[in-house]
Each structure stands twice: as structure tokens, then as C-alpha cells.
Amino acid sequence: MAIVTLVESINLALGRALADDPDVVVMGEDVGVNGGVFRATAGLQQRFGRMRVQDTPLAEGLIAGMAVGMGAQGLKVVAEIQFMGFIYPALDQIANHMARLRNRTRGRLTCPVVIRMPHGGGIHAPEHHSESLEVLLCHHAGLRVVCPSSPVRAYGLLLAAIRDPDPVIFLEPTRLYRMAKQDVLDDGQALPLDEASILREGDDVTLVTWGAMTHETLRAADLLLQEKISCEVIDLSSLSPIDHDTILDSVAHTGRLVIVHEAARNAGLGAEIAATVAEHALYDLLAPVERVTGYDIVTPYFALERAYIPSVERIIDAVRNTLKG
Amino acid sequence: MAIVTLVESINLALGRALADDPDVVVMGEDVGVNGGVFRATAGLQQRFGRMRVQDTPLAEGLIAGMAVGMGAQGLKVVAEIQFMGFIYPALDQIANHMARLRNRTRGRLTCPVVIRMPHGGGIHAPEHHSESLEVLLCHHAGLRVVCPSSPVRAYGLLLAAIRDPDPVIFLEPTRLYRMAKQDVLDDGQALPLDEASILREGDDVTLVTWGAMTHETLRAADLLLQEKISCEVIDLSSLSPIDHDTILDSVAHTGRLVIVHEAARNAGLGAEIAATVAEHALYDLLAPVERVTGYDIVTPYFALERAYIPSVERIIDAVRNTLKG
Amino acid sequence: MKTIAEFAIGYEQMLDADGSPVADLPEFTRDGTELVRMYRTMVLCRLFDTKAINLQRTGRLGTYAPCTGNEATHVAVGAAMRPGDVLCPVYREYGTQLWRGVTLTEILTYWAGDETGTNFKGPRGDFPWCVPIGSQSPHAAGAAMAFKIRKQPHCAVAYIGDGGTSQGAFHEAVNMAGAQKLPVVFVVVNNGWAISVPAAEQTAAQTFAQKGLGNGVPGVQVDGNDVIGVRAVMEQALARARAGEGPTVVEAVTYRLSDHTTADDASRYRPAAELAAAWKIEPLLRTRRYLESRKLWDAAQESALRAECGIQIDAAVLAYQNRPAAHTDAMFDHLFAQPTAALTAQKQLARRFGIPDKH
Amino acid sequence: MKTIAEFAIGYEQMLDADGSPVADLPEFTRDGTELVRMYRTMVLCRLFDTKAINLQRTGRLGTYAPCTGNEATHVAVGAAMRPGDVLCPVYREYGTQLWRGVTLTEILTYWAGDETGTNFKGPRGDFPWCVPIGSQSPHAAGAAMAFKIRKQPHCAVAYIGDGGTSQGAFHEAVNMAGAQKLPVVFVVVNNGWAISVPAAEQTAAQTFAQKGLGNGVPGVQVDGNDVIGVRAVMEQALARARAGEGPTVVEAVTYRLSDHTTADDASRYRPAAELAAAWKIEPLLRTRRYLESRKLWDAAQESALRAECGIQIDAAVLAYQNRPAAHTDAMFDHLFAQPTAALTAQKQLARRFGIPDKH
Ligand SMILES: Cc1ncc(C[n+]2csc(CCOP(=O)(O)OP(=O)(O)O)c2C)c(N)n1
Ligand SMILES: Cc1ncc(C[n+]2csc(CCOP(=O)(O)OP(=O)(O)O)c2C)c(N)n1
Ligand SMILES: [Mg+2]
Ligand SMILES: [Mg+2]
Fold it and tell me: Which residues of D are less than 8 Å from C217 in CB distance?
């Protein structure tokens, strides 16, 4: 049992996967000697050598494209993209090849690849370092998209992602990297994919969120509880596929739904959750669905990022709205 | 007045824009002597020369990136991407630069650029030639996304897009390129951006769709009318921003909503429409919202594309479901 | 200003347009049956092209990308490779694929819009056709990296066209392969055109063999209509790669004697004279002449071969036409090893509505 | 095998590490005041770096990318350009930007996470800093294409780092510029490292000057710590571009004497000895020595300069710290010329909630 931060739990899971399976290869920019710009791969090249923990040239498209070629040979590539804002050059390989290879070859070739990257803002980073672009990946069939909310879940979900025989996009909440520590048992136990996790049970409103926003959302739930408003808080965890059943069950119980995400609102993943409820739980709804999201603007430079990232106040306000209804 | 196909109306609008404004430059792969693989730029290089109608090297990222550099100099670039499945290499430039340049320079530099491309399937084309990826662009603030449904609207909306001082993604419904002809008056009149258009008024159900799917949707409306089911058919036209008011007004009148799009369902643009209705028109809804969409799969090779593209039968079925409710 | 680095690009040709040897021929040419096998495959490609175009014109096949004119390059590359190697093709290198065990029926099935065509029964490790131009290059670098990590004696071969070399992905892969001395060969098939854009407008580079120089990777240009020259150059490049000496860019200079695809009309943009001149140096005739000069071939064998190819092609077309019709389940069954709940539900929906007729 | 193409890369150095001329010095060196101005700007950059790092360490600035060690290259490029030209920088070429009229306050404002810092009052046409590595290269090709279309006498200059040359976008832009003979110069600042990846691991190329050869674009390598050599090479490349003879790749060999950014700790990966050796050939001292040898500079002027720079920097910091606080409206006001309905509504929402404190 080690008390670790989220980024340290990622490091533990990577070390475990490399130790357990000779086919696992970690690659990315500065993941070697430097141990990654967030230290997620610290010490791994020293332990596993330069072939299994590789610095790549500075080219995200290349990293994703090589992962396809290596994956088709059966290697389990765990590639790091330094920040989510730099995923764009890799999207062609991810969408046109990684997500499709199994299907277009009818199972002959596969891509047991994980692509890890920091997700979201809140750390006063420079331009292009704070993006939340999960929906770009979730819309593509053939990919799984996972986003943990704590060290314990990061460890178990990353191991599950690495062991999954298909491509998984693994989004790491940047501002949780060092925020809170947890006891993480490095026992090689994976958590199930495709499942949401209920962080807190409640009766009045269902709050659905993921990644770093679980922090503000739980805090809002705390404050609301002081007014006897009981919130059920769901950590989506699996952004694709979405565990709609868990959400629908909760809404059937509470009758109210507030979705919280950092990404821009328009065509964000919250829309899919709200739409599914409008289709399958319309008669359970006691009030209109609310979305508390980033605004439909370019992610601002950090001076205004706190005005952009949904605040506890905005979440509380939305919950109150649903209770008016 | 000329009776033309949709692709011919695009050609008319491009010719008009080139003739009216010396700053307009058309560029792309095979748009010159060859006149574009769909002939959208036929004859333009002969009329306007090799500087204003340019064949580019085979690189979509380059095309979008150059458009940013040319746009910042005040040129109105109208770039063609040969098929939407080839947009990925251009996304970094579109999302990280084109959509942001005005904002990040506080208006000092702008991108008066239009990026045109065929959208959707249905023409028995090879792999990667039938994609519907509008949501990848709609999610990005700083872009407008437009999709016409007829020669007349294509002409007017393309002129509006070219004249707009900000970047516009212009999606051309591939299977409508040559399907139906219309009288198009080449009078240089633009249609308004940011507005949906009501193709048919009705009382029982609101059908929202765009691009090529307007064809199947109108046909479904025809057949349903024979059973005295009256559908209001809305052509979204502006995929970003979405003209929610027009949709909400219609739903307030009909109480029922069916959204039809060709793109995959999960995190597709239909979700944003359904979510907005669930937020702002919950009490108007007499039945759960229905989405008739592509399945959450990789766009199949063309042998199965008719099973993938929402059929008239599926639309009719969805309308019936909402009437049960 | 002092010179700190110098580079040169060599050109190889072993059989001229008349089929006369213009260089010492390599070892493998001693084996007459091997040479004949190469020629037979070239002829099969040419005849298959005609058949496929005809099927498309008569509505029995989708858009098809012909290989006519490029057969020598395609067959020579296949002949130089080993079974354990991995091929990353573009979409018209049938000669290489046939040599490696892809079937004519699989090729037709692919162009008929049926994914089962990419589930090669032969070369299980080869990548399928790659439509997004340039995106196959990193796959080859990746496969080569896997061979290096596992210390396997295999090589990857990535094709790209003259137009494709304008894509950044190609340069990224070449740079990576050079930096890590990966066992991969990048074959640029310079067939003169990228749809309607001539190679000369695609780049200022006077050769495509030099495309790797900027990234420290050597290159060689070869007459792509010379099946012996291409095989010789490829064998050297592959040997170099296997020896851990790194990648090579091989430019095969040939010509696209066909339209770009059956959806294209090259007469709109291509000078007829250029096409006529290209026909004078096409690869089949010179190969045949050379074989005849070595008494390995004669008119009787030629007509026998054409008859055999006709039979083989007809059989492949028959198998293609008799293949099971695609079922909607197929759209859902191969997305994931473990399908998601949504997929399972949508699969039922698709079954219910089936494949509607066109309206 | 006959040779069909040959290429060479030249190396230029005019001032050696001691500041002694090692070549005939170009025209512009006759103008002592110009040389002094270049040196003054170099010193300003060096001192500003120290200040900015200090501001970051004390929580008064965000992450900052220092330029220490690269000043000669940055200032020389600026001095070689003309006002009407367009600069496409990366993020640490302050010397070029200052020469072109960007202010110290704008630089600080940018690194403080405030977009107003990119609204340059000076060079209105210059691109702002470009964080997505490699993506600025096509912008320069585009600006150059605009100049060509409009027959304007301007050039575009795009910076890129040694690491950045691995991005395909760079090669795509170089290829395009070559194919169309666009008026653009690509400056590769080879400062030895891409964060923790040494240049030698980034590519097999023995120089970065050769990065354009594959795409038919000539290159030249220059001592990037030699402000005279860099300016001379840049003036030639720019003249060539303006004359319609096409682009050049200029590699400036220098060294990143700092950490990558204030968020980086180079001691984790970089040999101390390498850093110490690099300090022995850094650009400021040699420039000063040369100026002194020409009696253009002395100790008194040096201390006066440092004092003036200090005052200038303090004034800039003051202006930076006194700038108006960012208002939430600013997030919405510059997205479109015509804002959308949704934006207008969200702007009100943002006003209502303002900028919450951190919890
Ligand atoms: C990324 C991408 N952009 C555009 C296309 C459309 N397209 C298909 S083939 C082709 C030209 C390819 O030319 P070349 O690389 O020379 O190969 P060739 O067809 O001549 O063998 C183009 C532009 C594509 N398939 N992929
Ligand atoms: C597309 C992209 N990927 C990754 C990064 C993260 N990153 C910032 S700077 C850098 C290294 C750049 O090295 P180089 O090009 O040599 O420029 P230098 O910093 O040495 O001046 C990296 C990997 C980025 N900014 N953009
Ligand atoms: Mg070609
Ligand atoms: Mg560097």
C-alpha cells in the first residue's frame, strides 16, 4: 500500500504493465530519461531499457501511426501525448486507422494500443495546454475513451486499458495529477471498463461528471447537503461507451439531472447524456436537464481559466434550477 | 436563370465570388485543370488563372495551414478538401489556428477562409469517401459550419460563407451533387448564415435534419402525409451555430421531435439538438425525442452503406414511435 | 563558406526499353524459372486490370484503381521481399500483393465495397490497402520498430506515390526510421501523376529518391519499368535494412498508363503525346524480349500464358460474384473484441431494417 | 549505377568564439551604430530573460520560455528582415520580435496568460507565438503565397526548432514553398535539445540545414552564436526569396543555455559538461569583443547599457503589472466579427459568475 498522487499511480500502473507483459512498450516525447513532463514515466526507462520505454521524435501523428504498425504486430503500445491540445496531428491515425483496423480487416489485424494524455486545464499552463476534447474521440466508433477521477481509479483503469485488446484513449485529469493522494495497492488488479462509478448516493438530483470536474461537483454536493439537498454523484469514467444504464437508473430515482463537464457546451459529451435521457427517461424527469459546461469559446489563456472551468457556484446554481422545476 | 445541379451551383457561386472580389483564391487538390474530382471548380482556372485557382501539393494540413497564412493577409481563401474522410490532417490547423486566430490576437489577425468538402455517403465510393464528421468541427468555437440541401441554398450559402469575415466549414452533400436540379439565379445574392430553414410546415411532428438526409426525410414526410400525419421538416443548414429558436418554436407547436442525421449517433450533432430541447422545451414534449442516425460503427464499405444511412423506413418508424407516446 | 555535407543520388537501370541488358545482371537472373514467374505475374496484373475495368464499366464492380504500367515495379518489389516481411501498400500495387499471396478475388471483393476482401487469407500480417494518402508510412515504421524490439529478421516495405510524398506523415516516418535505423524500405512509385497533378508540380525536388536526404536517409532511383533493376535495388535496400543499417528511399520511375481510377478521365488533363511516349517504354514488352533473348520464352508460351491468365481471372471473378452477400451483422461484429451494449442493441435494429432499396 | 543528382551543404561563420573575424565581413558591418544596436538588443534579451525567470519563480508570471544562448540568431534574423515582412515565430525568439517592435510588456502579458499580449501594437502582420510545434511553417508559406499573388516585395520568415523539424507540417510547407518558389525563409534554430531529446536522437540527418534537400530546397548552416554570420546568411536567403528564386532552409547552430522552460529541470537529462562547454562559445561575449576591437564599445558603455536595460525592463514590468485586469467579456468578444446568439447569452452568464477563487 502506497500513498500516492494520481500521476504516481499512473507511474505504478505503467511499471506494473511493463513488468508483467514483455509486449508492453511505452513511447512518447520526453518519456525516457526525463520521465515525462509530468513525471508519469519517471524511472521506467532506467528499469526497462530504451527499447521498451522510448523517446520518439517530436511528431504526434508519427507516434499514433507507429502505434498502429506496432499494435498490428501484437505489441501493446502505451503512447503518451504531452497535452491534449496536441492530439490533432494524431487524429488521422487514430480515427482512420487505429479505430478501424480490426473492423476493416475483419479481425485479422488489431490495435491493442493505449494513448494517454493530460486532459483539461486549471494549472496555469500556457496556450494549448488546457484543452478538453474528449468528444472528438468519443464520436469515433472503434475506440474506448476512459477518464479516471482518483489515484485508485487511475491505477485500475489504466491497467484495464492496457490489457484491453482494442485501442483505448486514456484521459488524465491534469489538475488532479498532484492534487490529492490515495492509498493505492499495486496489486495488478484492473477495474472494469465501460462502467460508470457512483461516487456518492443521493435522492434529489443526479450529477454526472468525469475527470477533474468530479472535484468541483463533489464539493457542490457537500455544500448542498448542508441545505438538505441530497445529490447522487456519478463519475462517468467510461466516456465511450457511456454507461447509460447507471445514469438512467439514477434519474429514475432522483428525477433530476445536472451534467457537468469542462469541455465546451456545444456538441460536448454532456449533450449525448442529456439526449439519451430525453429519449429513454423523459417521463422520469421532474425538471429540465441542466448542463454546466465550459462556454462555447476558445479555451482562454490561463488568466481567465477559472472563469471558464465550471465553478462550484455554477454547479450549485444549476442544481437549484432543477429543484425549482 | 439556369437549371443546375448542386455541384453546378457551387461552381456558379465560386465563379461569382472570384469575379466579384480579387481577394478570393480557390485552392485544393486537382481543382485546377481537372476542375475538381466532382467538377465543382470546372473551368475556373481557365477563367481566373493559375494564381487564383491553384492546385496544391497533396497535403490537407498544408492546405489549411496556408489558408491561415493567406487569410491573415486578407485573402479570402476557398479551399477544397477532396472528401471529408481526409479532413483529419487539416484539423490541427483548423482547430488550433483558423478557429482561434481572431480571438488570440484580439482581432488583429483574422481568417476569412472557407473550407469546402463533400459530406456523407451514398455514391458507392471507396473506403474513407463517405464520412459524416460535422460534429468534429461543430464542437470547436470560432468556426461556422454550414450544410446546404439544394442547389439554390448551396449557391446562396456558399456566397455568404465566402463573404463572412471568419472561417466557415462548408459541407456539400455528396449524394445530392447531381441528384436534383433547380433553377438557380446567378445574381450574387447570399442567403443568411446562422439560420435554419423550414422546408415544410406541419403540426404533428418536427423533423430536424440537414444535407443529403433532407431527401429521405422529405420522402418520409410525404408518405406519412398519406396517413394524415403532418410533419414539419426543418433543414438545419447552419450546423454551428445551431438555430435553436426555430427548432424550439416548432417543438412548441408539434410537441414531438425526430432528429435525422447520417453521422454516427454517439455524440453526434443530434445529441446537441435533443439536449437543448430537454433543457428548454421539456414541458412542450408530448413524447420522447427520437434520433434516427448512422449506427455507432465505422462507416461501412459501400456494399452495406444503404443499411447504414438512415432509411425512409427508419424515419417513418421513429415518427410513429413519437406518436405512440 | 566551407562545405560540410555532400549527398548524391544514383540511378539504376539493368534492362533498357528494348529489353537489352545495360548492366551486369544480378545473381537472381540466373534462375530462369524465377524470371518467368515474375513475367507471368506482370502479365496477370495487366490482364486483370482490363477485366476489373470492364467489370466496373458494366456495373459489376465499384471504383477501381488500375496498375497498368507499374507492373514491373510491383512484381519486383514482391519478389525481393520475404514472406515474413510486412507490406504497407497504397491501393494499386497488386503485383506485389499477388506475389505475396493476396488473391484476385480478395482484390475484387475490396473494390466491391466489401470488407471481407481485406481479410487476406495469404499474407496475414500485411496491411490492407491504404486510401488516406501517406498514412501507411508510419505503419511501416511501426512494424519495423516491432521487428527491432523483438530482434526479428523481418523488414517492412511501405509504398507511396509521387503525390503522396507531399504528405508530412511520409517525412515523419522516414525521419523516425532513419533516427532508429529501422528495417524498412520506402518505395516511391513515381508514375508521373497524382490524379491530375504532374509530379513536377508536386515538388521542386528533381528526384523522389532524394526525399529522404533531408532526414538523413539515403535514396536511389531506378527505372521502374525494369523488373530486374527494381528487384536488384530492392534486394540491396532490404539487405541493408536487415543488417541494421537503416532505411532506404527507393524511387521507381514508371508511368500511370491508365486513368487515375475508373472514376477519372485523364484525357481532361494529360497530354496524349506524353501517354503515347510512355507506352513505348512500358514494362511488359521489354521483359518478354529479354526472356526471349534468353530462350526462356516464345510466342507459344505467350499465348498459352494469356489463355491461362484468362481462365484464372474468370475463376476469380466467378468466386467473387458467388461470394456470400454482406449481412448487416458484419457492420457490428468486428469493431471490438468485446462489443459494447449499444452496439449489440443497434445490431438488432439494423437487422430489423436490413438493406433498403435505393430510392 | 550512375549519379543523377548531387547536393552540398555549406557552413558559414564570420566571427569565431573569441570575436575574431574569420571571413570577409559583409557590407552592413561597416555601419558601427547598427552593429551596436544589434549588440544592445542581444544584451536586453539576456537581461530580460533573467527578469522573466525571476518573475515566474516568485509567482508573478506563468511558465516562461527563456532565450538565453540564442540571442545572436534571434537578433540577426530580425535585423535582416524588413518591416513589411511577416514573422512566424515559435515561442522564444524575443530578439527578433523586439527588433520588429514587439514590446517587453506584450511578451510578459502573453506569458501571464493574457491574450492582449498577442495583439502586437508594433508588427501588426506578424503571427503571435506558436505553441503547437511545426504548425507555423505552413502559415509562412501561406503569407508568402499571398505576397506572390499580390506581387508584393515581402518575405515570410518561419522559425522552427531542431525538434520541430520532425513534424510533417514543416516538410509540407518547405515542399510547397519549393514547388512554387515562394518568398519565405525557414530558420531552424538548432539549440541542441527538444526539451529532453538531444538533436542527435531526433533525426539521422547530420545537419538541419539539409532538411529541405528532399523537397528540392537548398540549405545552409551557420554558427548561430555569430550575429554577423547569421545576419549575412539571412540577408542572402531573403534576397534570393525576394528575387523569386525560392525558399532556403537556414540552420543556426546555437545552444539552449537555459532549461527548456521554467517548468523544466534540464539537470535531469543534460550533462553538466555539455552546458559548461556551451557557455564558452555563447554569443554575447564574442560580439562585445568584436565591437571593442573596432573601438565601437568599451566597459563604460557596457555598464551604461546594463543600467539602461534594467530601467527599460523595470518600466516594462511595471506597465505589465499595472495592465487592466482581464474581464470575462474578453473571452467572448473576439471569437467572431458577428457574435452568435449563444455567445451573447453565455457572455451574460460568465459575467454573473465572474472569476471565482481557487478552492
Ligand atoms: C489524405 C488524402 N487526400 C486526398 C486523397 C484523394 N486522392 C486519392 S489518390 C490521390 C492522388 C495520389 O497520387 P500518388 O500519390 O502519386 O499515387 P498514384 O495514384 O499516382 O499511384 C488523391 C489526391 C486521398 N486518398 N487521401
Ligand atoms: C505539437 C506539439 N507537441 C508537443 C509539444 C510540447 N513541446 C513544447 S516545446 C517542445 C520541444 C521543442 O523543441 P525544439 O523544436 O527543438 O524547440 P526549442 O524549444 O528547443 O526551441 C515540445 C515537445 C508542443 N508544444 N506541440
Ligand atoms: Mg502518382
Ligand atoms: Mg531545440
Answer: 204
